[in-house]
Amino acid sequence: MADFKFRRVLLKLGGESLAGPNGFGIDPLQAEAVAARVKDVKEMGIEVAIVIGAGNLWRGKQGIDRGMDRATADYMGMLATVMNAMALMDALERTGVYTRVQSAIEMRAVAEPYIRRRAIRHLEKGRVVIFGAGTGNPFFSTDTAAALRAMEVDAGVLIKATKVDGVYDSDPGKNPNAVKFDNLTYIDVINRRLEVMDSTAITLCMDNSLPILVINLWDPSALERALRGEKVGTLVSA
């Protein structure tokens, strides 16, 4: 462990990381690919917790735009994250990685209830813990859930896994002249309205000095290099 900068990390995944080519649903091949990345980190001896979104199954904004009650839309999204968590748990366990899903909404037939001390104990025993159902409250995103859980389990860093290699001043897919940031402060992210995480999550990390590292999950070496303290992706800190 002396070679690594962080002993325990929280990995924030978008639901799209499990989606197939059309961007919707759960593709078992994608789940296996994500599981392989997580297994690589586990084999380094690093403790891993995960929060996963639900964009591949449900986008509450679409319902809200049609007049759906915001709380109802958010609860539906929370339930969808548990489905994603279970799919990822299955993929991880098929690779030999012991995994537990904890849900902020009690559903004992499929997941443990979220209990902070139990989650920490799982991590100490070498298990991956996937936190489902967000914070358990409407009006909070899975970004905020990731920041909250990272601090509760004393993670050294919140890793935001994306399909790009960091944070840019504009969409690099649309603007070939987009500039990548190596380092940003929390205030920079808020003032520039950069889409790293939502403002509630950024503020929570800022108030508790939790660094956020944005990397490309699909770069085979990015995660390992980042954990060794090399300059990879974009680091958001004080």
Structure description:
The longest helix is centred in the middle third of the chain and has 25 residues, at 70-94. The chain has a single domain, classed as 3-Layer(aba) Sandwich (Carbamate kinase), CATH 3.40.1160. α1 crosses α3 (70-94) and α6 (186-192) runs antiparallel to α7. The two termini are 25 Å apart. It is built from 8 helices and 11 strands. It has helices at 28-42, 60-65, 70-94, 116-124, 142-152, 186-192, 199-207, 222-227; strands at 8-13, 47-52, 99-103, 112-113, 128-132, 157-162, 167-168, 180-181, 183-185, 212-216, 234-237. The mean pLDDT is 92. It is an alpha/beta fold and 238 residues long.
Blueprint (SSEs and pairs):
Blueprint: E1 8-13, H1 28-42, E2 47-52, H2 60-65, H3 70-94, E3 99-103, E4 112-113, H4 116-124, E5 128-132, H5 142-152, E6 157-162, E7 167-168, E8 180-181, E9 183-185, H6 186-192, H7 199-207, E10 212-216, H8 222-227, E11 234-237
Parallel strand pairs: 1-2, 1-6, 2-5, 3-4, 3-5, 6-10, 9-11
Antiparallel strand pairs: 7-8, 10-11
Helix pairs in contact: 1-3, 5-7, 6-7
- Note the run of SSEs as H and E: EHEHHEEHEHEEEEHHEHE
CATH superfamily: Acetylglutamate kinase-like
| Rg estimate, integer Å | 17 Å
Which fold does the CATH topology refer to?
A: Carbamate kinase
With strands numbered from the N-terminus, the spatial order across the biggest sheet is 4-3-5-2-1-6-10-11-9
For the largest beta-sheet, the strand count, sense and barrel status come to:
9 strands, mixed
- How far apart are the termini? 25 Å
Give the uncertain stretches in residue-range form. Answer: none
